[in-house]
Amino acid sequence: MNNYPKHVYIRLIKYANLALGLAAVVFLGSILIAYPYSEYFQLPAQITAHILIMVLAGVIKVAFVARMVAQKGINESCVV
DSSP labels for 3-47? Predict the structure, then answer.
C-alpha cells in the first residue's frame, strides 16, 4: 500500500505522458536527421542526432516506467 495521495500520481502521469510525447517527437526527428536526410545536415548535427537517439531511448524507457508507477499508484489509491 502506498502513502501518497492520488493527486501525486495524477501529476506524475501527466509529466510522464509529456516526457513520452516530447521524447518521441525529438527521437523521430533525430532518426530523420541521422539516416534518410543526412546529406542535408553537417557532420556535427549528424553526430548529435546519433547521440540523441541513444539518450532519448533511455528517456523514453524511464518515462514509460514512471507512467506505469503512476497507473499502479492510482489503481491502489482507488481500492478500499
Answer: -S-HHHHHHHHHHHHHHHHHHHHHHHHHHHHHTTTGGGS-HHHHH
Asked if residue 6 is part of any domain, the answer here is no
Structural domain harbouring 45? 20-78
Q: Which pTM was predicted?
A: 0.87
Whether 45 and 23 have beta carbons less than 8 Å apart is answered as: no
Residue pLDDT, tens place only, 34-77: 999 999 999 999 999 999 999 999 999 999 999 999 999 998 86
Set of cell numbers at residue 52: 540523441
Tally the domains of the chain.
1
